[in-house]
């Protein structure tokens, strides 16, 4: 694992200087955010939010549990933030870093502590059974401003989620499946949104929605959680830049404007998805892949030829048939050249049967001879190289003669190429 | 082709779609959808290795599988293991001693055939990262229904109702089996039938790989 | 509001304070002989101990050392008996980890970190009794301990937690006032320049009130500063007199 992301001093200076000149490296205005996309999964409560290159996936799930003694009529909500090693080489699986703790707490404060979810509505039987919600937030690509992206993703997934309907008759609690009863949405009071700013020039300049490079070059970050009713739900400063009261006011004003836009787009996206679902259109991530993007490819359902059914169940017959079929399917075996270009570089010929295993074989045969040669010529570098090329040719000749059974045996074993595939190559 | 043979039943695989290099941070990444099963995978490598994982003769191949909800448990660890065994056999790990190749898989949607989709997604991510491999791997999923019919690339519901469930991974050179993962009880003939169906379907997946890579490098090819 | 009236019609709080009044603050410096600097502070019923070690050579892995400034290592812990419900473990839960991060961040802004490159300063705070405003009390205690250790600071760091009830900001809120779920704002400031080094907010507060609450919080911090400054001066005078008499 890489210990930390290292950025060059000159790169950081460049970012700092450009911010001083009211410019940003990606051509945005100082208070301009990146493009935001919200896409919904096929299952309820699954949302992928992208903000520029930053990408966060979240999934809400629920289960029945006992309420806490202190709050017998309240359900609970647990937010679990995973800084997946996918997102950045510095993140490690299963370890909570400082950044992870910071992000978890920001989301907890923004969503749980601001009473966004009506927990009392999650009560089934007071003091006995409540719903406990779990929000899994997976950071899939880290390019700055995780807090904003994660908050949007988590809040929209809570909105998108539907919990199963339950009926209580006496002491019996029946949970209805999706087919029996339409699942019901959670009752949410408001949509809190986090907005991140990065501070530059000893707090005099702020930029909205920083990328990772900008975050690293900045003096600190301010995360403000606001909702559309202009209520501040959370505030957090990281980094060590002292601020003035007036500056705080400014962030909040900027954040309020941004929050209005974000809540609107969350709502429109949710509506759009709702329409798609009710009109039985395709939904889910698979649909989003079927685009004209140059890097996206798709093939429609493909018919597959099924080999003729085996008439007899007898083992001998079926084995014969299988052999036939494999012959039919597999391309004619070709000899493959394994080319050694130089240290640590090798090329394998186009397609055809692999001959790596034969390399392994013949090396065993050749070891004695080549070692002998090596010993003889160990003082002479040039001749040693010669020996090696000679060895490789030998291998190829030998390989053609090698026994087929041995080949098959070797193919089955894991790591079926030689440990010293490039024996003596460097 | 043999498709004119009237006796044969036909099976189909669901829509396959993929996008390569869709994440900016990893060295290689791919999102693959097989029907409504979607898996995102990413590869970092060869990179610095943690000292306790360092191998003197080859790269350490690390796999992390992330489920959509909850923490990874025993089934997830097993899945990691299967994927690792499948792909380590094809990667030329000897080219990068004292390094590490990290593969991360994230389940995004599950609608049957998750393991197969994981393997295909992982293989495409490794391809995208430009790591040297001996061959490509295509994995396919088939089930035997309670009536005894073979069903290729089933949905989650069909998979749950099935009598037995198979996942096979094939290599691209001789189309031989690298991995076979089964669940439930079945007869030997059933096994062989599933294997052959999956094997012929694997060609489609390899064609798909080829098209993906062609698209990926289309700019360079045109030049 | 659970039948409790946080602010009476006459403008008194539950414990008889007026909204802008701090709780009684009592502190002592140099309570440990072992530590380079230490302090004990009581803010009402919230009691906190702080100890500071350093600046000293890097402990543990040398590679953690920073070549351009001192590494500040903090630990926030709450004694298992500090809360009404016994805590299972004193530290390691997410809230204490967050507090640790905040402490580190606060003091990185206040300590002249560039003076001690490749070294380390340890700040340990322990909440002995929690009755609201834990974090701000910890910051105040740590400031005193740092002063006691003679570590150069840009200024005192004073912190204050402020609540907001019935359109009235209340400084230095207690546990009861905290637990009723109103908005609370914790700020740490450098009192002379009124610069904010830490700002934390939980629960909901309308934007229009922010200025009012923030102003009250900063005022509260300045009140804390007056008390801390007096304590430090008395303490230094005492030491000076004892040194002089020898």
TrEMBL record, chain A:
Broad class of where this protein is predominantly found: cytoplasm
Chain intervals for the UniProt region annotation (Disordered): 309-329
InterPro entries assigned: ExoRNase_PH_dom1, ExoRNase_PH_dom2, ExoRNase_PH_dom2_sf, Exosome_comp_Rrp42_subfam, PNPase/RNase_PH_dom_sf, Ribosomal_Su5_D2-typ_SF, Rrp45
A Pfam entry, by short name: RNase_PH_C
Origin: domain of life: Eukaryota
Gene3D superfamilies, per the entry: GHMP Kinase, N-terminal domain
Coiled-coil boundaries: none
CDD domains, per database record: RNase_PH_RRP45
Keywords for this protein: Cytoplasm, Nucleus, RNA-binding
Keyword flag Zinc: no
UniProt keyword Ribosomal protein, yes or no: no
All copies of domain Exoribonuclease phosphorolytic, residue ranges: 32-164, 190-257
Family as reported in the entry's similarity comment: Belongs to the RNase PH family.
Record-given protein name: Exosome complex component RRP45
Source species taxonomy: Eukaryota, Metazoa, Ecdysozoa, Arthropoda, Chelicerata
TrEMBL record, chain B:
Domain of life where this protein originates: Eukaryota
Gene that produces this protein: LOC106462153
Family, as annotated: Belongs to the RNase PH family.
Location of the protein in the cell: Nucleus
Swiss-Prot/TrEMBL keywords: Exosome, Nucleus, rRNA processing
Residues annotated as domain Exoribonuclease phosphorolytic: 13-131, 147-197
Name of protein: Exosome complex component RRP46-like
UniProtKB/TrEMBL annotation, chain C:
Classification via CDD domains: RNase_PH_RRP41
Entry superkingdom: Eukaryota
Gene that this sequence comes from: LOC106473736
Similarity comment: family membership: Belongs to the RNase PH family.
Organism annotation: Limulus polyphemus (Atlantic horseshoe crab)
UniProt domain Exoribonuclease phosphorolytic: residue ranges: 21-152, 155-220
UniProt cross-references to InterPro entries, sorted A to Z: ExoRNase_PH_dom1, ExoRNase_PH_dom2, ExoRNase_PH_dom2_sf, PNPase/RNase_PH_dom_sf, Ribosomal_Su5_D2-typ_SF, RNase_PH
Coiled coil spans: none
SUPFAM superfamilies: Ribonuclease PH domain 2-like, Ribosomal protein S5 domain 2-like
Protein name: Exosome complex component RRP41-like
């Amino acid at each position: 694992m890489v210990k930390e992301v290292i950025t060059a001093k000159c790169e950081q200076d460049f970012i700092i200087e450009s911010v001083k000149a009211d410019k940003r490296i990606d051509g945005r205005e100082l208070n301009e955010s990146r493009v935001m996309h919200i896409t919904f999964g096929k299952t309820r409560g699954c949302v992928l939010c992208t903000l520029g290159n930053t990408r966060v996936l979240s999934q809400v799930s629920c289960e029945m549990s006992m309420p806490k003694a202190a709050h017998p009529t309240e359900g609970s909500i647990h937010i679990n933030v995973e800084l997946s090693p996918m997102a950045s080489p510095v993140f490690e699986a299963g370890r909570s870093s400082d950044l992870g703790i910071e992000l978890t707490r920001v989301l907890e404060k923004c969503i749980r502590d601001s009473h966004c979810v009506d927990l009392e509505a999650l009560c089934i039987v007071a003091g006995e059974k409540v719903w406990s919600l779990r929000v899994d937030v997976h950071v899939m690509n880290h390019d700055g401003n995780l807090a904003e992206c994660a908050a949007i993703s988590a809040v929209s997934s809570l909105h998108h989620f539907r919990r199963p309907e339950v009926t209580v008759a006496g002491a019996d609690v029946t949970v209805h499946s999706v087919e029996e009863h339409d699942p019901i949405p959670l009752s949410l009071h408001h949509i809190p949104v986090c907005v991140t700013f990065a501070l530059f020039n000893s707090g005099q300049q702020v930029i909205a929605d920083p990328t990772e490079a900008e975050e690293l070059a900045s003096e600190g970050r301010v995360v403000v959680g606001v909702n559309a009713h202009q209520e501040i739900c959370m505030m957090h400063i990281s980094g060590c830049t002292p601020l003035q009261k007036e500056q705080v006011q400014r962030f909040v004003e900027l954040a309020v404007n941004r929050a209005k836009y974000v809540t609107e787009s969350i709502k429109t996206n949710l509506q759009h998805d709702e329409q798609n679902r009710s009109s039985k259109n395709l939904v889910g991530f698979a649909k989003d892949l079927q685009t004209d993007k140059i890097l996206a490819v798709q093939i429609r359902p493909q018919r597959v030829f099924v080999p003729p059914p085996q008439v007899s169940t007898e083992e001998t017959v079926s084995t014969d048939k299988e052999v036939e079929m494999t012959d039919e399917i597999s391309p004619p075996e070709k000899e493959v050249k394994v080319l050694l270009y130089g240290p640590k570089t090798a090329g394998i010929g186009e397609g055809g049967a692999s001959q790596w295993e034969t390399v392994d074989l013949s090396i065993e045969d050749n070891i004695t001879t080549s070692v002998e040669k090596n010993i003889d010529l160990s003082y002479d570098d040039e001749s040693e190289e010669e020996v090696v090329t000679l060895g490789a040719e030998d291998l190829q000749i030998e390989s053609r003669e090698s026994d087929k059974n041995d080949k098959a045996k070797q193919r089955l074993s894991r790591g079926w190429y030689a440990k010293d595939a490039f024996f003596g190559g460097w | 082709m043999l498709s004119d043979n009237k006796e044969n039943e036909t099976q189909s695989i669901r829509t396959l779609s993929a996008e390569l290099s869709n994440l900016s941070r990893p060295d290689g990444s791919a999102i693959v959808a097989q029907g409504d099963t979607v898996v995102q995978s990413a590869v970092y490598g060869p990179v610095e290795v943690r000292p306790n994982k360092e191998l003197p003769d080859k790269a350490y191949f690390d796999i992390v599988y992330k489920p959509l909800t909850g923490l990874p448990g025993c089934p997830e660890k097993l899945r990691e293991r299967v994927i690792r065994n499948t792909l380590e056999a094809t990667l030329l790990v000897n080219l990068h001693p004292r390094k590490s190749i990290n593969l991360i898989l994230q389940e995004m949607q599950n609608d049957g055939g998750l393991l197969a989709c994981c393997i295909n997604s992982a293989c495409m991510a490794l391809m995208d990262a430009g790591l040297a491999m001996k061959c490509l791997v295509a994995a396919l999923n088939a089930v035997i229904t309670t009536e005894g019919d073979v069903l290729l690339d089933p949905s989650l519901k069909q998979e749950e109702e099935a009598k037995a469930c198979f996942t096979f991974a094939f290599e691209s050179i001789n189309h031989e089996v690298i991995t076979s993962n089964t669940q439930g009880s079945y007869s030997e003939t059933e096994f062989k039938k599933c294997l052959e169906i999956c094997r012929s379907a694997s060609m489609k997946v390899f064609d798909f790989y080829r098209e993906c890579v062609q698209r990926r490098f289309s700019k360079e090819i045109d030049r | 509001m659970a039948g409790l009236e946080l602010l009476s019609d006459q403008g008194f709080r539950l414990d008889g304070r007026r909204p802008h009044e701090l709780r009684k603050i009592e502190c002592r410096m140099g309570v440990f002989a072992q530590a380079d600097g230490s302090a004990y502070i009581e803010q009402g019923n919230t009691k906190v101990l702080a100890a500071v070690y350093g600046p000293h050579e890097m402990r543990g892995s040398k590679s953690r050392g920073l070549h351009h400034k001192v590494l500040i290592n903090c630990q926030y812990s709450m004694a298992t008996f500090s809360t009404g419900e016994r805590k299972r473990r004193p530290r390691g839960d997410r809230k204490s980890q967050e507090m640790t991060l905040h402490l580190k961040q606060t003091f990185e802004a206040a300590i002249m970190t560039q003076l001690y490159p490749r070294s380390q300063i340890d700040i340990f705070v322990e909440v002995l009794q929690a009755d609201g405003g834990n974090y701000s009390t910890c910051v105040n205690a740590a400031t005193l301990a740092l002063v006691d250790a003679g570590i150069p600071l840009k200024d005192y760091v004073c912190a204050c937690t402020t609540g907001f009830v019935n359109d009235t900001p209340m400084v230095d809120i207690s546990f009861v006032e905290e637990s009723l779920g109103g908005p609370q704002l914790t700020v740490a400031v450098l009192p002379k320049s009124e610069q904010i080094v830490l700002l934390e907010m939980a629960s909901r507060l309308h934007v229009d009130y922010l200025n009012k609450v923030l102003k009250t919080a900063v005022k509260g911090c300045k009140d804390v500063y007056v008390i801390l400054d007096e304590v430090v001066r008395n303490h230094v005078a005492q030491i000076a007199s004892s040194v002089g008499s020898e």
